[in-house]
Amino acid sequence: MKTGIELIAERQSKLLVSGGRLGDIGRMILRAEMLVEFSSITSKTDEAIRLLAESGARIAAEIDILNNLKQE
User: I want to staple 35 with a disulfide (CB 3.0 to 4.6 A). Which of 8, 28, 48, 60 is the partner?
Assistant: First the structure.
């Protein structure tokens, strides 16, 4: 089983992030939270993990964008 950071890194390598996506990240995290809280079905848990990994990748990409702006 991959660790959280491995899943985030894998997803980040596949993701192109543009500005204005922070609302999407929040919705993905809320969806994952609901899946975990209200379902014990394995497929729903897998979906929650996927959503959290993608959210983490998007957050990491947004941080990279901000860090690059600070260096300019």
Answer: 48
Q: Model pTM? A: 0.66
Site of tokens 């950071």? 5
User: Are the C-beta atoms of 23 and 55 separated by less than 8 Å?
Assistant: no
The Cα–Cα gap between 37 and 23 comes to 21
Q: Which of 4-8, 59-63, 66-70 has the lowest mean pLDDT?
A: 4-8
Band (pLDDT 50/70/90 cuts) for residue 13 is low
> Which structure tokens are listed for 62?
């947004």
What CA–CA distance (Å, rounded) separates 55 from 31? Answer: 11
Contact (Cβ atoms closer than 8 angstroms) between residue 54 and residue 11: yes
